[in-house]
């Protein structure tokens, strides 16, 4: 649990905020995310707000779209609330770590088997979505939320809600720039399936090396080809998500990763961080009235 | 693990709303609760009916104090407590991790660094407790939760202040024998050094999967704890000497907790960062921790309705439409994972759409666990006696009418038949099936053969005994154990009858001992015979019009008769040996345990209970079943009783049963979660935790057989046999 800052809201609609999901100073997080609780103490949720400086209407439109989807491997956006100027959504809480927090807990890049499991699950989620013509458009390290049963894709439509205007995208962007395909970074183009695959490659690179734009040599040998292929400058040269899945998890039964009913194997320190977060939220109490 | 609330569980305890059950025992129940501020806690309660007992209330208060002393680092942080309430309660943090025994079961023995880190942390915890002059007294794997941050010591049920002697009667063995200290086993003072002894046992368990004195019956364990040498053979070399010192019989020779803490590596036993302990744990344990961290956030299961079972599905109903065999097998598979997992999965599966039991629209029928669907149902006629299902390797053998049938355990299909009409002429050792050569054949000698499990044919004789006639219908194959067949057979000359041991390896007779000839026309000499410990026990078929059973025991090695007694019986005579290494258990007017050593009465249960006595001619206690040191028997219309096999004292008794007529001649079957018994409505599942009936499977069973390994409960009715998942 990350402590609230002074500029964080004390309430989101009827919900009382308990903590931030993302560590202070996190970059490349296209949403503001909080752990919050209903005033009667009965329900604890993950609540999400548009990023500071973002366009609330565009953000709400994407959130509304996401709430309609029940895609395997996508974070389920629960109910939408708020006003056009101050929209938010909330979904039941479960122990969850954004990918940057996973690396922080582990103390560096993740072991190759974990990267394969993560990447395979995300590829499977994108494959299921792409078949239906759904483009995620928000794949980035902070948008990957790791649960004990594997990762879920959040931040649906973040590139659509925060379009790059012109070729002069600066460090101001709320998005992790390494996740933007070259054709998008130039501005003008709409995110498509190939853009999702590029971003998946960046996420895999991040998990395996600690940053989204690694040198080829930094990437573990076993992952080098698949990550490099995903991050190809030519959209046509990028593999389909199903191909990425087959490369990462050979012989995986389709649907087995996103549908995992059992906890997946994760490094000890990552399990410790997930378990500690759960324990802290279990022990957290709503602030008493008047304090 | 999290399981649904029962209908009579409270809605609130103190300031906490109650969400689910975490566990229960004879003393009270542990619930998952939530405060108005949304804080989630484990709430331990003492049963209201026990709260009047000042000793128990005092213990509860001491437990609360001990938990406070232990604190959040080594124990579960105390959130709130009210030991003075009509139902005393204690609320602690909900600790996210499996008990050590579950952890070792899931991930195997822990690697040495993990054992050291575990030991160092536990030693520090005990040191903190002892500094406040509290002794745990019941340290054991199930009282230690393995979290990602380190072990936590819970359950101070019998923790007490030094010298607070009046709380424990001398000799009332309250701890767990496997991890007891010798002084505790002897009924003496168990001080801080006793906890050190127990801690060493726990660490040996963590490192090897078994305690230092092995397993087995409590009395044996107590003996070994007091006088035996601990088994440190599989303990990592570098820990052996240290743990051996902790296990010194003389408390004064054991190291202190501080010394132990240091010797195990102290704070440096695990990497110093927050995840330092977790990285030492096996993957399966980490996944178990992860599961628990996540599961608590799921919507709690709905509260169960009162257990007045109705509308059970028809016994021979085919699996519900729309429920694939795969799904049914998944249910059975779940049962194999044991009570814990099924605790979660059971309610979900049984309240799923598989319910087509007719009239399933009643609201309360939706919330209650349903009887499972049969995995298969086959038309196999069950004989009046000898209808037990025999697991043979991975498959089954059972009598169907006048033949012996091989049955595929997965499908219930018959794979072979053997023409062995008389039930007493075949037996199994669990992996192979044996029978006596047909008495109508020409060969003169008695022979034991193996029955082929492909075509039911008898193979070449494994043992041929020319001293006994093969042409005797009532020759009897009692059992096969350790490569030896035990028979009752008539001598070829002179016509006398003998109990015979035949070595199936050498094919030679090992010994013989004279027994009475068959007493009743149409029946063999013995009701049953079996090997237990160093004894062969024989129960003679009662002569008609008598109410006496003749029990005798023989030395397994020499065949010398050790003792013989007569015992009265009522109802149907017993058909199988119910015994452990110590006693032989019988049930009729009373429940009795006879010592295998000398045939003497070890204990007698139920004499004059409820002020009635039938003078011995009425069966009040149903055919018993022995499971894990507990004798289960159905008592007239009161339902199931669980009696401690060692002491003959009542463990518990089924609650809230009414309007059922128990079929006492059918022995109960016991799984991990339920005991199954038979009444006029069918098979009744009694929850071993809540002691209440949870469902009834409408049927008319003649025999119940539990196959723990295969995870099945076989229900034999007169004309059909069913396989249900055993939970």
- Number of continuous helical runs of chain B: 12
CATH class of the domain at 108-294 in chain B: Mainly Alpha
Molecular shape of chain B:
globular
Mean pLDDT of chain B: 82
**How is the main sheet of chain A built?**
6 strands, antiparallel
CATH fold call of the domain at 108-294 in chain B: Transferase(Phosphotransferase), domain 1
CATH C-level name of the largest domain in chain A: Mainly Alpha
- Assembly context of the chains: heterodimer
Provide the domain count of chain A. 2
Q: Choose one word for the global shape of chain A.
A: globular
Q: What is CATH's topology name of the largest domain in chain A?
A: Transferase(Phosphotransferase), domain 1
CATH homologous superfamily of the domain at 108-294 in chain B? Transferase(Phosphotransferase) domain 1
Question: Could you tell me the number of beta strands of chain B?
Answer: 41
Order of helices and strands of chain A: EEEEHEEEHHEEHHHHHH
> What's the arrangement of strands in the largest beta sheet of chain B?
1-2-3-4-6-5
Derived structural class of chain A:
alpha+beta
Kindly state the mean pLDDT of chain A as a whole number? 91
Task: Summarize the topology.
The complex is a heterodimer of chains A (291) and B (727).
Chain A: E1 11-12, E2 15-20, E3 32-38, E4 44-49, H1 56-68, E5 79-83, E6 86-92, E7 97-98, H2 99-106, H3 112-131, E8 144-147, E9 150-153, H4 158-161, H5 182-185, H6 193-209, H7 221-230, H8 241-248, H9 268-283
Antiparallel strand pairs in A: 1-2, 2-3, 3-4, 4-6, 5-6, 7-8, 8-9
Helix pairs in contact in A: 2-9, 3-6, 3-8, 6-7
Chain B: E1 12-13, E2 16-24, E3 28-34, E4 40-46, H1 54-74, E5 78-82, E6 89-93, H2 100-107, H3 112-131, E7 134-135, E8 144-146, E9 151-153, E10 160-161, H4 182-185, H5 192-208, H6 218-227, H7 237-246, H8 257-263, H9 283-295, H10 325-336, H11 339-350, H12 363-367, E11 376-378, E12 390-392, E13 395-400, E14 403-407, E15 414-418, E16 426-428, E17 433-436, E18 445-451, E19 458-469, E20 476-481, E21 484-490, E22 497-503, E23 509-515, E24 526-532, E25 535-540, E26 548-555, E27 561-568, E28 583-587, E29 591-595, E30 601-605, E31 625-627, E32 630-635, E33 639-644, E34 650-653, E35 669-670, E36 674-679, E37 682-687, E38 693-698, E39 701-707, E40 712-717, E41 721-725
Helix pairs in contact in B: 1-3, 2-9, 3-5, 3-8
